Amino acid sequence: MQMLFQWDMSRQDPVKLETKFWKSAKAADKTREFANQLFEGGAKEAAALDEIIGKHCENWRLERLAAIDRAILRLAIHEMSSTDTPPRVVLNEAVELAKKFSSEESGAFVNGVLDAVHKSLTTK
After folding, report:
1. How far apart are CA 114 and CA 117, in angstroms?
2. What pLDDT digit, counting tens, does each position of 59-77 carry?
3. H-type helices in 1-124, by residue range?
4. Which of 13, 14, 92, 119 is most deeply buried (CB count within 10 A of its CB)?
5. What does the alpha-carbon distance between residue 37 and residue 59 come to, in Å, rounded to a whole number?
6. Which residue has the higher pLDDT, 61 or 5?
7. 41 and 69 Cβ atoms separated by less than 8 Å
8. H, E, C per residue of 5-38
9. Which domains does the chain have, with CATH numbers?
10. Residues with Cβ within 8 Å of residue 79, at least 6 apart in sequence
11. What is the pTM of this model?
């Protein structure tokens, strides 16, 4: 989520951003690999993910969303659609990230958007 946020703010080359990020962040190799996969996928597919977010954000334009909320939503939608992580786990983790890094209201907002996205993904 932090790498996606940084990328959204600067549009740096993802590989350079990862290198810089991991100089100060510590994680096990498996965790780092998984985080990099999610970040790279979220950055690469940002336009498509933003389209999905836009379809499920009632009365909100994407550019009006807090950058951190955009990063959380991109990350979660990418993870739900490209990994074996159970959608409920992804949703719960995204809500906790929103509460921790954004606001209490963002938790409910992220929950609503991701629940709608999950329902649309399972009905395809």
Report:
1. 5
2. 777 788 999 999 999 999 9
3. 2-10, 14-24, 29-44, 46-56, 67-82, 87-101, 104-122
4. 14
5. 31
6. 5
7. no
8. HHHHHHCCCHHHHHHHHHHHCCCCHHHHHHHHHH
9. 2-122 (1.10.940.10)
10. 38, 85, 90
11. 0.92
